[in-house]
Amino acid sequence: MTTYLIASNEMMCRILARRMEGQDIPTPVRWHGPEWLLDGDPVPLRMPSIDNPDATEPVPGQPVEMALVDCSGVPGDPRALLDRVRARLAPRRWLVLSDALDAPLMAHAALLGANGCLAVPAPVELVCAAATLVWAGGQCFPRSALSLLRSLHPHTAHAGLAPAAHFIHAARVSPDGSTAIG
Question: How many C-alpha atoms does 180 have within 13 Å on its Cβ side?
Answer without folding.
Answer: 7
